[in-house]
UniProtKB/TrEMBL annotation:
Native source species: Rosa chinensis (China rose)
Subcellular localization: Secreted
Record-linked InterPro entries: Haem_peroxidase, Haem_peroxidase_sf, Peroxidase_pln, Peroxidases_AS, Peroxidases_heam-ligand_BS, Secretory_peroxidase
This protein's name: Peroxidase
Gene Ontology cellular component annotations, sorted alphabetically: extracellular region
Amino acid sequence: MYQKSSMFIMILTLLAVATTFPSSVQSQSTRVGFYSSSCPRAESIVTETVQKHFKSSPSIAAGLLRMHFHDCFVQGCDASVLLNGENTEKTAVPNLGLRGWEVIDDAKTQLEAACPGVVSCADILALAARDSVFLTKGINWNVPTGRFDGRVSLGSEAKNLPGPRDSIDVQKTKFQTFGLNTQDLVTLVGGHTIGTSACQFFRYRLYNFTTTGNSADPTINPSFLPQLRTLCPQDGDAAKRVDLDTGSAALFDATFFKNLEDGRGILESDQKLWTDASTKSFVQQFLGVRGLQALNFNIEFGRSMVKMSNIGLKSAANGEIRRICFAIN
Ligand code: HEM
């Protein structure tokens, strides 16, 4: 009887896991301190390298956080985004604005000198994202490590990445595919509390938003519109960069959500987190709106990042520890 019921519970558990995570999502596990005996200085080497680059170029923090996200959503967190070559992920349109490649390269060179063939590029990306958040005065969380680097990188798969014109339903679906729920979506998009966007990704909101007239997106605060139009003139430089979190772009804090409440979101996809009821309630929780259970943005961000960082992990069977991050062994 005991055996029968425990078997039943096991089957239920397996079913629950299978429905929560598609088979491609989790195949290998990671753990905190994976390198503590094989390469004890692994994490501090990454941290010191990120610190060094951040000192001369603070905007690198946002670049590294975004790079990890773009890695995880295509082929899982396996450093496939780093691979050079024709038609690799790196060459796909959504990845053209990524930055921070030299930081990963620098860290890998030092790690190979300290412990050759031990630390994966996928782990460097996950650690560098964490360090970037901490350097911008956000939370510091434990990153489970032990990822393998992938051998496949296809530019065509970058379509999995969410786009700035995606509806909330599309955004939710894209996140759900990887076992990330609506709260994770709102929390992780909160990563836009640091960094910038090129005018090309939101300028349409300022001028020809509706097909019926020469008007702006009505969800933009009317007092904010002239400011945005000055930053991104109609026929100006499409590559010009604008802070995603107006007034606090260098700090990892919850003001991004306050800006959404005030109609000061930059990307259409960001502002929609406030207009859609299912995501708005999480934004309100981060803002501590009375009557709702308050959520601490930084704490939740660390939690959701650990989930995101475990997407689609490779194993020894379909992965490797690259010797250099930009080419397979
Ligand atoms: C619906 C989901 C998302 C959409 C549509 C989206 C879209 C974008 C776009 C269009 C940009 C500007 C890119 C450029 O100008 O080159 C951007 C920047 C950025 N994104 Fe996202 N993003 C999403 C989710 C995320 C997530 C989950 C993270 C991190 C956890 C993230 C982190 C960043 C950062 C830090 C930047 C600034 C990059 C820099 O300054 O170099 N984004 N995002």
